[in-house]
Design brief:
The structure holds 2 protein chains of 2 kinds. Chain A is mainly α. Chain A has 17 helices and 3 strands. In chain A, helix 1 packs parallel to helix 4, helix 8 (132-149) runs antiparallel to helix 9 (168-187) and helix 9 packs parallel to helix 17 (358-376). Chain B is built from 5 helices and 3 strands, in the order ααβααββα. Chain B has helices at residues 5-9, 12-22, 27-37, 49-58, 82-106; strands spanning 25-26, 62-67, 75-80. Chain B has a 3-stranded antiparallel beta sheet. In chain B, helix 2 packs across helix 5 (82-106). The longest helix of chain B has 25 residues, at 82-106. The radius of gyration of chain B is 15 Å and the shape is globular. The mean pLDDT of chain B is 87. Classes of the chains: A mainly alpha, B alpha+beta. Chain A binds chain B through residues 14, 26-27, 29-31, 33-34, 36-38, 41, 59-63, 65-66, 69-70, 72-74, 310, 312, 379, 381-382, and chain B through 26-29, 32, 45-48, 50-51, 54-55, 57-58, 60, 64-66, 73-76.
Amino acid sequence: MKSSLPINEFIATVVARVSYKDAHNDIARELRSHFEDVQEQLTGVGLDDKAIEAEALRRMGSAEDVGTQLNGVHQPRTDWLLLAAVALLLVGGMFAMQRAGVLAPQLLWLGIGAVVCVGVLTLKPRHLVAAAVPLYLATWGIGLLGFFTGPRVAGQPYLAVGPLHITVVELSVVLFVVGLPGLLHTSRAASSARRAAVLTAALAPLVAYAYLASSAAATIYFVAVATMLLVSAQPRHAVIACSAVGGALLSLAFYRATFAGPAAYQALQQSERHTDFVFHFLQAQSPVLAAAIAIVALCLVVYLIASCSETKNPFSRTLMAGATAVLATGIVVGLASNIGFIPMPLTGINLPFLSNGGSMLVAHMALVAILVGIRRRKTIAFLT
Amino acid sequence: MTVNKELMKGSTATLVLTLLARKEMYGYQIIKELEVVSSGLFEMKEGTLYPILHALEQSEAVVATWVGEEGTRQRKYYAITKQGRALLKAKKEEWRNFKETVDKVLQG
């Protein structure tokens, strides 16, 4: 049915009653599709367009009633389980920082993280899609600024903002992972040349991580990119080619990290008990709390992986997969290297919510805010 | 003959799940199918179906998928899930108990 004024008014009345705006597009499409079906059925029974329209509206019932009932259904739900798990990890992290005597600065970063989370929660998928290219370019800008002007710690660039030192490489992993789903989403229906450009852009950070011998950042980024490529329904050959090139760059990063000589030794020496070995430190301070933290952290990983498939919007699903990969790799590799599952000491892996390091705490909290936002609108199938 | 709206209210979700247990359907198809299998007895205001479908979707008893490309005819198909089948089984059992009890009372 051509959307006539009364039908558009009916649909507008229905969606106006639904307070959760993200559901409007989906509801309107479905009602419009319904009216088209009614018209198809009534065409050919001797009714003119106006009569068909009147009959379709009569059968539908009251727009106000339908809208009110739909409003009762579409109440966004906060994922309290996810928030509770993260809160417990944060408590464990703060306990470790208190024992290590660095609680005050970490609490300050926690406050900054809370403010950032509130801001991130106001973002909708379309904002993140629109921000994909600027975010990708800005991340390179921040990285290059840190590389050329920032101080170096164990060979890794930092960005000094007043008294705050931001770990450029690790932060860039999170920023790239947040930006990439938007690029992948817009490239789905694009020409093969544009898609190739997007996939090259996806792999480019691995070149930088290999150059900087940042094996930890390369590992997390590689896992996240490979996961996002799989989830975003890219052509199989593109996924295989990207994984092969990405795997080679990851190997190069490990090779350079292993043979970095004094820098690698310096990195290991500068590893503090409350940063790279925070879980080990926690075990020494409170074995019961450490055990609880490990169980919650691993349950969180399983929960997030299982939740990805529930998310219907393709962009949100890709973003969720990327964010989950970053957190899950950090948790699994971080715990494994702390308890000796990984034979070589792997420095630079920040155990999410537990390790000392303000900028990464804020970045990981922002990822959680993104995940909470996605979980609130997990049943919305269409991108607005 | 028609059925009292209030009587239908409590069982519409069960009827919808029963139809979806047979095959995937879109909204209007469900309405038509319901009319056919009930020989026209269950005629509902069509708009009331969507809140029920959306509630079933929120509770993960059904999953919905849009079929059709952008710019062409699109329909939202609903399919029952494993949780949906379990819910349907429980609802059928509940209905059987209710029916037996009402029958017992009516037969005095």
